[in-house]
Structures are given as C-alpha cells and as structure tokens.
Design brief:
Elements lengths: L1 H19 L20 E2 L4 E3 L2 H8 L3 H5 L5 E11 L2 E11 L3 H11 L5 E2 L8 E5 L6 E7 L2 E8 L4 H19 L1
Antiparallel strand pairs: 1-3, 2-3, 3-4, 4-8, 5-6, 6-7, 7-8
C-alpha cells in the first residue's frame, strides 16, 4: 500500500511538472500583427537570423556584440503607418540572447551613454530613448532574455515618439505574457 501511495504521488508530481512547462517564446511571436497598433502594418518580409552568418548578413559588424554574448535568434520587421497624415516607417528588431544575463550585457554594450533613460511606465526591465539622431527616435530595452531596438523614421514629433513607445510596450507585454 505504501509503494502504491508513493507511486501515485510520483505520478501526480510528473503530471503537475509537465503542466508547468511552457515552450520558450520565439522572437517571431513577439512581433505586433498588422493593425494591432492603430493602422501600422508590416511593409516588408520579415528577416530572421538563426546563426552568426545570417545575423551578419542583416546587421553587418554590429552583429559581433550579439554573437559574443550568446545570440540565439534575431528578427527584423519593418512597419509603416500614418503620423499626422504622413506615411512613416518603423524598424523593429528583437534579439533572443538566451538568458537575462546576456540580454543585460548586450543592452549595456550597445548603449552610447547619450540616451535618455525611459523610467516612467517604461517597456522592459530597463529602457532608453536615443534622441541624438537628426530626424529619428530610437528606443532600446531589454526584458527577460530579449534585447529590443525600435527606430521610427519621423521628424521627431511627440506623436512619433508615442508610436515608438507603443511598439515597445506591446513587445514588452508579449514577452511577459
């Protein structure tokens, strides 16, 4: 009877452990869908890299910082939408760095030190906004094992920055779901 009870508990433990296991999130699944954020839609095919060679093909020498810190997978998607009745472009890049340590390391490495920390209702664990670009805003953040870069090609209006922030918050929410 004691052996049967132990076997039953072990079996119950196995079933409970299996229910808690979830598939790791894929960078592709973190991308907003068409019209998920207002009227913004994908404007090109998605770029995916799953090895160093593919990554270097997409982002050239910039890839070294990622490959030296545990790069697993990369996705880049271009979007287009309207800001003040003008069509604008937005580039979203997500890097799966394998774990939180690698994501944090890359976040620290790729920063220039000239960005403004985004600390009020920000995306991710840490986020920053690069306002040094002549016409564009760039947001960079890390959350869980992911590093995310968003660049909006727009004439630096608050509306453009708000669109970029909306994308960042959307991706961060998808990471945490």
């Amino acid at each position: 009877m004691k052996k049967l009870l132990i076997f039953g508990l072990a079996l119950l433990f196995c079933f409970c452990a299996q229910e808690d296991q979830t598939e790791p999130k894929d960078v592709v699944d973190l991308l907003p869908l068409d019209n998920e954020l207002s009227t913004w839609v994908r404007s090109s095919a998605m770029d995916i890299a799953e090895n160093e060679t593919q990554l270097y093909d997409f982002i050239n020498g910039e890839g070294w910082d990622y490959t030296e810190n545990g790069f697993v997978k990369f996705v880049r998607q271009w979007y287009e939408g309207d800001i003040s009745s003008e069509t604008r472009q937005l580039k979203l890049r997500i890097f799966d760095m394998g774990d939180t340590t690698n994501a944090k390391n890359v976040y620290d490495i790729v920063g220039t030190g000239l960005e403004t920390p985004w600390t009020d209702n920000n995306a991710g664990v840490e986020a920053r906004i690069d306002e040094t670009l002549l016409f564009d805003y760039k947001i960079n953040f890390w959350d869980d094992r992911f590093c995310v870069d968003i660049t909006i090609y727009e004439e630096k209006t608050s509306a453009g920055l708000n669109v970029a922030k909306s994308f960042a918050l959307n991706v961060s929410a998808a990471i945490r779901d």
